[in-house]
Amino acid sequence: MEVQCFTVGAFQVNTYLLKDEATGKCAIIDTGESDELVQRLQELAPLPDVEVILLTHGHLDHAGSLVSLQNIFDAPTYLPRLEQPLFDTLPTQGDWFGAPHMNRPCGRIDTLVDDGDQIKVGESTLTFISTPGHTPGQGCYYDEQHIFVGDTLFKGSIGRTDLPMGNHSLMQESLQRLMALPGHLQVHSGHGPVTTLAQELMTNPFLQFMR
Predict the structure, then answer these.
(1) Which secondary-structure segment (H or E) carries 171?
(2) Which domains does the chain possess?
(3) What's the pLDDT score for residue 210?
(4) What's the burial of 43, exposed, middle or buried (CB within 10 Å: 0-12/13-18/19+)?
(5) How would DSSP label each residue in 115-161?
(6) How far, in Å, CA of 26 to CA of 14, rounded?
(7) Cα(132)–Cα(174) distance, integer angstroms
(8) How far is CA 182 from CA 88, 101, 145, 150, 208, in A?
(9) Taking the model in full, what pTM does it have?
């Protein structure tokens, strides 16, 4: 699949537009919290043929613009099942950061995904792997070349576990699951640059416990 990254909003979240080359069908992974994403997508010609919207987790910087996207694209939205309680707090999450103006409506969830579920995008397939720790239901979507990890893993770092509903022990277990996947997979994180699983296993200081 072709991958295009849009870095938007106050939190500089990476939103990904995936395009199945055979059919032109697209997926959006995470939505940012700013209408900047909507504007940038609307500037594309032609407008992407979005088949699904996928959320890695329910923090406002990753799901806050969901309603705006749903107003444009008639596409079902997928959320990790264990994220539903956190997602439901979107209307008040801005308060957590002292920014009530960032509180957002929840939007519509059409399908809850579980570990191992597969999602079709045109003729391509993404597999969901549950990687809780940063949040209770944080998860990743991957194919043969790419993995979209939300806030589980970053180049040289990992997701925070000190926010509400975070769990450090679960994060350690999730990182072990993630690193059992093929090392060549390109890691597309919720923030920051692209890396690979193999590179992070060798160099990421937070993964020393696995070396």
Answers:
(1) helix 168-179
(2) 2-206 (3.60.15.10)
(3) 85
(4) exposed
(5) TT-EEEETTEEEEEEE--SSSSS-EEEE-SSEEEEETSEETTEE---
(6) 16
(7) 6
(8) 34, 42, 9, 18, 18
(9) 0.96
